[in-house]
Amino acid sequence: MGSNAYLLRQCPICQKNTQFHIEVCSEKKAEELAYESLTPCWNGFFKEKIFFSYARCNECDLLFAPIFYCQDQLEALYAQMPPNMDLVPMAALVRTQKEYYEELKKFSNLKNDYIEIGPDIGIFTENCSKGGNFDSYWLCEPNKGVAEALAKSVDNKKFTIIEDMMGFSQIPDQCAGVAVMIQVLDHLLDPVATLAELKTKLLPNAKLLLVTHNEKSLLRRIVGSKWPAFCLQHPQIYNPESITRLLEKSGYRVDSIKKSTNYFQFSFLLKHLLWAFGIQAKAVPRIFNFTIGLKLGNMITIATPN
Ligand SMILES: [Zn+2]
Question: Residue 262: pLDDT band by 50, 70, 90 thresholds?
């Protein structure tokens, strides 16, 4: 299980001791609880909300947790975690990811090799396989349970599944025209190192597509510290300014940042909003089972290597 001590972090963008001030914390703070007693909170969505306090870096504006799980603890926690994709109905997920694809298509000719970090069952990958003209697909996905679905998502095209989220060393240098990370960057302890290594795999005019939460979004302002993205899985959360600085530090320039629409079954959304306000509803009436689109606090970023 590794060490019980948490990691003390500097700002992961500035990578030096900067001044910061605590901005968001839960009633019970994760950093005040022992590792073992915190583990049950890691998996549950409807239990008491506990997270590591988030501070704002005075230099780069990033919202990050100065105390967080260390890498060994994170690996152990992710290994015991059940897959969470079936929380959101499939039709809603497909529609949400279609919008990401349409955005990528505006900037990329969808050629050369394709890299995706954490594709899960390949909902986004399938869009690129059907609409793009890629030579080879490099898919970093540690969850063996989705391998079959993932293979299907690229049809009969050439692909390699790398069972390590950060196993870029197996990918040839300067081969890819597109790299994709959907809801991955908020989870990384050292996002600069990951993006810099990924850059070595990209062609000069390649496009990087990132989907992350946006902590300056309207939803975050409405629900405050109860915003679902404040959680034990996110060592930092970006906003348009801080993600721009992160990309510059990692050797990229930003082409575009856009608020994304998330499609939900209304019943799903209602349940989660009620939960955010402290009401636990196991089921809501079936009349709420329709799909709606909302700009709920995610952003799509497109960037190019420098
Ligand atoms: Zn900073």
Answer: low
Q: By CB neighbour count within 10 A (0-12 exposed, 13-18 middle, 19+ buried), where does 269 fall?
A: buried
Which residues, by Cβ under 5 Å, contact ligand 1, an ion? 11, 13-14, 18, 57, 59-60, 62
Q: With contact defined as beta carbons under 8 Å apart, do 48 and 28 qualify?
A: yes
Rounded to a whole number, what is the distance in angstroms from the first to the last CA of the chain?
Answer: 40
Distance from residue 305's CA to the centre of ligand 1 (Å): 21
Query: What is the Cβ-side half-sphere exposure of residue 130, based on CA atoms within 13 angstroms?
Result: 11
Query: What is the whole-number distance in angstroms between the Cα of residue 18 and the centre of ligand 1?
Result: 7
pTM exceeding the 0.85 threshold for the entire prediction: yes
% of the chain with per-residue pLDDT over 90: 65
Angle between helices 90-107 and 123-131 (to 10 degrees): 40
Provide the H-helix boundaries in 132-276.
147-153, 191-199, 218-223, 240-249, 266-276
Residue 17's closest CA among 81, 66, 74, 88? 66
What is the average pLDDT across 183-197? Answer: 96
Does pLDDT of 281 surpass 70?
no
> Are 295 and 261 spatial neighbours (Cβ–Cβ below 8 Å)?
yes
